[in-house]
Specification:
alpha/beta; TIM Barrel; 2 domains; eight-stranded parallel sheet; three-stranded antiparallel sheet; 14 helices
Length: 312
């Protein structure tokens, strides 16, 4: 396909693998990029020198475009930005913060910048900041989420109507059918996270991958809204958070309950009861752990097949 997203990123398919913490290392990223999509290194769970290592290994493993996802709330973000510039990463996706802070710095170095948004208001701010595209991420998505709780079906056409830059749909997308629906809504590409968590190359723990493919509808819920809203798989930790919130726990009490390393403990180390398990609603329809290239090809082949079929 030749459209605004494939041209912008110099990729074959407008399929972007989300830069997920504890899942999106160089193996997954290079596998997605080699398959024709765009792989994103998830820098939010990496110390600066670990990020540099993943970038270097990714360069060896693929000669195609790849990107780094940078959460703007990361405490060492200046070091991450310096490494990205030094290593000449071609594309950066920013999230969880004000795009004005780093966009001009990155673009001065010839780096394309995409910002993740949860509303039309924030999409316009990203466009004004000089971003090359936006990811419109709906309420269904896993991980950190927008406070607006706007679903993808509503958010994508609203953002498409608000901005002139390319819009990439995210949240609740794991199949070619869902990709086609997103494109009909006006998106020029899709960003997919949860299905790539359940890929062979993802660095997420096998226990977490198995939990994802055995999950059902209603097994995730948006939580920790007083801190930063995050969609979690239900487990013992989630239940304790729910109880604390129902008892009107303060922000400090919730921070103490969350503690440090909770996400690593769950998603990377495989503690399914006390770990923080970030995953999207679409996990309910993901039923197998597959190689990343197979995932990309299945999504694209289904998209192309359905695109040619008449509406029923």
């Amino acid at each position: 396909m030749n459209n605004r997203v494939t041209q912008l990123f110099n990729i074959k398919y407008p399929i972007i693998q989300a830069g997920m913490i504890w899942a999106s290392g160089w193996r997954l990223v290079s596998a997605v990029s080699n398959a024709g999509g765009l792989g994103l290194i998830g820098s939010g769970s990496m110390y600066p020198e670990i990020l540099r290592e993943h970038i270097k290994k990714c360069k060896v493993a693929t000669n195609r475009s790849f990107a780094v996802n940078v959460p703007l709330l990361y405490p060492d973000i200046d070091k991450h930005i310096d490494i990205i510039i030094e290593e000449k990463v071609p594309i950066v996706f920013t999230s969880a913060g004000n795009p004005k802070i780093w966009t001009s710095t990155l673009k001065e170095k010839g780096i394309k910048v995409v910002h993740v948004v949860s509303s039309s208001k924030f999409a316009l701010k990203a466009q004004e900041a000089g971003c090359d595209a936006v990811v419109a991420e709906g309420f269904e998505a896993g991980g950190h989420n927008g406070r607006e709780e706007t679903a993808t079906m509503v958010l994508v056409p609203a953002v498409c109507a608000a901005v002139n830059i390319p819009v990439i749909a995210a949240g609740g997308i794991a199949t070619g059918r869902q990709m086609l629906a997103s494109m009909v809504l006006g998106a020029a590409g899709v960003q997919i996270g949860s299905r790539f968590v359940a890929s062979e190359e993802a660095s997420s723990h096998t226990n977490f991958k198995e939990a994802v493919i055995h999950s059902a509808e209603g097994d995730t819920m948006l939580s920790l809204k007083q801190l930063t809203p995050v969609r979690l798989m239900k487990n013992n930790f989630f239940n304790r958070v729910q109880t604390a919130e129902q008892q009107c726990a303060s922000v400090d009490e919730l921070k103490e309950l969350l503690g440090r390393g909770r996400a690593k403990n769950g998603m990377f180390e495989g503690n399914l009861e006390e770990g923080e398990l970030e995953i999207g609603q679409v996990s309910a329809i993901i039923k197998s752990i597959q190689p990343a290239a197979v995932i990309v090809n299945e999504i694209w082949n289904e998209f192309e097949l359905l695109l040619k079929q008449p509406l029923k």
